[in-house]
Amino acid sequence: MSPSKKANCPLMNMAQRLLGHAPSSQEETRWRLLQAATEVFAEVGFKAATTREIARRAEVNLASIHYHFGDKAELYREVFRLPFLNECNTFAALDVAQVSMSEGLRALYIWLFPPEAEDDPMLKQFMRLHAREEGDPSGVLGDAMVRAFQPNHENLLALLCRELGLATPDDDVQQLAFSLVGMATVYLHGGRNAVEAYAPQLTKGLPARERLVERLVEQARTLIAGERKRRNGSKKEST
């Protein structure tokens, strides 16, 4: 692969930061396969994607996929884990004991709804891939996404428990956590087509997407304040 082509490989840049050193030949092959697989799966979906096309785009031999990932299904699962790596998953890496509620919520929504996604080729591919998986499930992910998202969910629960003065989350806090996440994912996955059809101005252009993140933070704060008020009211009634 030519130096100019390497320079335009976002995942190779990610690999170097995660590894802490320039990728070895074997590591480079693995990340080039992930780069190519992300593109192909996003374009045609899991079922129509071929390992031959992925290997061709990565400029490696076909046997490299078996060596690094075993089969197409595991390669697909690995691609879906990429946005959850520490390099991308800034919310899961937050120390919720040290950040303000607004800072924590902002980190969550920037991760769930990256304002720069439309201008970043790899983020755009990840969004297309997730939307395609929702519309035409591959059947091979299993609980991979659930396990990958778990650190985020646990961090959000910790933030909510801190704000509400709870030692452990109860069912109401769990429901609140899912509601806060759902407010952002509607713009990315299941409801994205509706948003683009009814109110495309909400997500068109970087300033609009940045405003949307701030509005999500405000709305989340309102929901949390409402839950705090409800709990305080219940305490007063019981005394």
Mean pLDDT equals: 85
The global form is elongated
H and E order? HHHHHHHHHHHH
N-C termini distance: 72 Å
CATH C-level label of the largest domain: Mainly Alpha
Q: Can you name the CATH architecture of the largest domain?
A: Orthogonal Bundle
Could you tell me the number of beta strands? 0
SS element count, helices: 12
Give a short account of the largest sheet: none
What are the defining features of this structure?
239 residues, mainly alpha, 2 domains, 12 helices, disordered N terminus
Describe the protein in words.
The radius of gyration is 20 Å and the shape is elongated. It is mostly helical and 239 residues long. The chain has twelve helices and no strands. It has two domains: 3-80, Arc Repressor Mutant, subunit A, CATH 1.10.10.60; 89-238, Tetracycline Repressor, domain 2 (Orthogonal Bundle), CATH 1.10.357. It has helices at residues 3-7, 10-19, 25-48, 51-58, 63-69, 72-81, 101-112, 121-135, 144-164, 171-185, 192-198, 206-238. Helix 2 packs across helix 3, helix 3 runs antiparallel to helix 4 (51-58) and helix 7 runs antiparallel to helix 9 (144-164). The termini are far apart.
Q: What's the short version?
A:
The chain is an all-alpha fold and 239 residues long. The chain contains 12 helices and no strands.
Task: Reconstruct the topology from this structure.
Blueprint: H1 3-7, H2 10-19, H3 25-48, H4 51-58, H5 63-69, H6 72-81, H7 101-112, H8 121-135, H9 144-164, H10 171-185, H11 192-198, H12 206-238
Helix pairs in contact: 2-3, 3-4, 3-6, 3-8, 7-9, 7-12, 10-12
